[in-house]
Amino acid sequence: MRNERLTAxxxxxxxxxxLAQFVITANLHAFIPIHILLGMLLAGPMIVKLFSxxxxxxxxxxxxxxxxxxGPPNIWMRLLGPLLAADTILVFASGFGLALTGPTSHGxxxxxxxxSTAAFIPLVAVHVYAHIRKATRLVASDFGGRSRDRVxxxxxxLRFTLLGxxxxxxxxxxxxxxxxxxxxxxxxxxxxxxFALGIVAAVFGVLIAIPILRGSYEK
Length: 219
What we know:
Elements: H1 2-25, H2 28-61, H3 65-70, H4 75-101, H5 108-143, H6 154-174, H7 176-180, H8 194-213
Helix pairs in contact: 1-2, 1-5, 1-6, 2-4, 2-6, 4-5, 5-8
């Protein structure tokens, strides 16, 4: 299906950018301006993926034959999906709100971004575990495999994904003055950090997901 290949392409790009963001977040006090700009860049592909997933949701529950024939995702992924989507929106909204209010702000945006980030890491870890093999296979067959493995609309999927990246780049450029205000920001001494909590939760989340999803997650 064209839709799932668009979702896979956006997902693979997001995974690369999210891993880069995690590396930066591990040393946040030194790279906070880059963290803000990369977050803005991430927003473009994230919008593409949320649009693609939303389209699939609407088409399936409205009874479109092609999507109904494909069937619903694993029940655990159906439960995880709305949580991840809602938390993702909260991560971005609170992050941009915090960036705009400035480094001296420790109000609702700060608390919301910390809490949503701690939840986002394990949620996305389980999501990646469940879908990574299928997503990479679809992308590989679309752009590097044999022509008979490809599905029509590849050019449109690529253009749509590139548009998301371009929007993210434009947003990052517009955020340059905002990011520069955070250059001398220092992390207040507080342990454990939301990032550390999220990493620990992600390890346990994936360990729990392995037996639950074994034999049923998308391969």
